Amino acid sequence: MNENVILPQETVMLDKFASDLNLEMLYAGRGILTLSSISVDRPGLRLAGFFSYFDTKRIIVIGLTEHEYLRSFSPATRKEKIKKLFDCGEIPCIVFSRDLPVFPEFMECARKAATPVFRSGKMTTSVITDLFVYLSRLLAPTTTVHGVLMDVFGVGILLTGSSGVGKSETAMELIKRGHRLVADDSVLIKKIENELVGTAPEKIRYFMELRGIGIINVKNMYGSGSVMSETEIELVMEMRPWEREREYDRLIGEQNSEEILGVKIPKLMIPISPGRNLAILIEVAARNHRLKSMGYDAAQELIQRTIGR
After folding, report:
1. CB–CB of 120/22 below 8 Å?
2. What is the pLDDT of residue 147?
3. What is the CA radius of gyration of the chain?
4. Catalytic amino acids?
5. Are 47 and 71 a contacting pair, CB within 8 Å?
């Protein structure tokens, strides 16, 4: 599968960042955030004068410990320590936890550096956890693949195959049977931890192209219950025209694996021929995959019954 991997760097508007993390914006600074690191920094050592291994790409969180440390100094000394922090490079933003008051010296240095400043009422540990989860999703390794992503009985199934093979038409049949569309034609996949999460690019979300009909909006046509914003990809099903000269494994099927962003996903090859009900086959594959994930394999049981005696 050809992958176009997107490097992990994102630009985020300040109001969206503040809204997503429930932060109070104290100073807008440069107006945007350019984020490229999932790590968050508490600058205790930096304020004490140790600047080795200081990564200015990290968001800085000021907690009670750092705040009380700075409060123990005179305004002049405090300003000098804060200034050295900002002189190291362009910090994405500063977040104060626990609704801590912001020192005038801190705000003065932030304005000179045009660094956005936020504040949260949460404990420092909670702020860092929220930021880590947010950044892990935002900056996750990303790729785009051609296919259709469906949620079938709670199993995320990526339908692949050559253009015109019938992926969208099969997806429509699944939608009519009560399953949900995630993405059609272009599937945006992110690797979060060791899982692949698929969604649709924002501009084409919930739209589908059907040859001979054109573009439809699945959500508007079938209701909000027919779509979902994202799902974990657990199974890849490649749709291929039936080849008469090819011998297909009738016991365990055409099973393989697909590697996406370094993660291997079980893959089934589904031969297409007139009269095959692909929607039912995909439903069966979803249920069978769920059973296998719970430890039951019908093919292995049959082998044990017939050969393993």
Report:
1. yes
2. 93
3. 26
4. 146, 167, 185, 250
5. no
